[in-house]
């Protein structure tokens, strides 16, 4: 049962983290439209390989941090400050983002694979994201840092990433207008998400000090 929860947790975390229009999924869609789905899947394969390594390293790092309750508390306090600031920024300060369509040149499948690796490696967001997610899940007894659970969680994150990439590749033409709408409202969406995370972090901090 714990392994199933770990798999679902990794899957859902990846699905939430990679669904908003970004450089990776938009590039995968554009490669599919320009060169075909086979080239796009080579691009995705390279991106997912790096994502696997990023998630694995993030969870290992989280395991080290989780063994130190004082560091966990410090991270929660820092996280509350960061996410609180982001909530204010995205809801009231940030300007409306505009869709930047990546320029795609025609390359071989091998170059698409390495392009996927390169763009994924340049995206540092997954590491702090999965550190925070895994520690939060652990605090609610939904995840443990044993070898099996880590592997299943990482596998779930990879499957979730692959599914989102597949949706972008297969249905981009149908969702392109919705992607524009989603991007226009991205500040509100991100602000609400960071707001919820801030509240959860604050509750955890208060629980620690009041117990």
Defining traits:
211 residues; 83% helix; 8 helices; mainly alpha
Polypeptide structure, described:
This protein is an all-alpha fold and 211 residues long. Helix content is 83%, strand content 0%. The protein contains eight helices and no strands. The protein has helices at 2-18, 23-35, 37-66, 69-93, 109-121, 126-139, 147-184, 186-210. α3 (37-66) runs parallel beside α5, α3 (37-66) crosses α6 (126-139) and α4 (69-93) runs antiparallel to α8. The longest helix has 38 residues, at 147-184. The protein is globular, with a radius of gyration of 18 Å. 33% of the residues are buried. The mean pLDDT is 83.
Brief sketch in words of this structure:
With 211 residues, this protein is mainly α.
Question: How many separate helices?
Answer: 8
Give the N-terminus to C-terminus distance in angstroms.
30 Å
**Shape from CA axes?**
globular
Unreliable residue stretches: none
Query: What is the H-and-E element order?
Result: HHHHHHHH
- What is the count of β-strands? 0
Round the mean pLDDT to the nearest integer and report it. 83
- Rg to the nearest angstrom? 18 Å
Structural class: mainly alpha
Strand content bin? under 5%
**Roughly what percent helix?**
over 70%
| Oligomeric category | single chain
Q: How many strands, what sense, and barrel or not for the largest sheet?
A: none
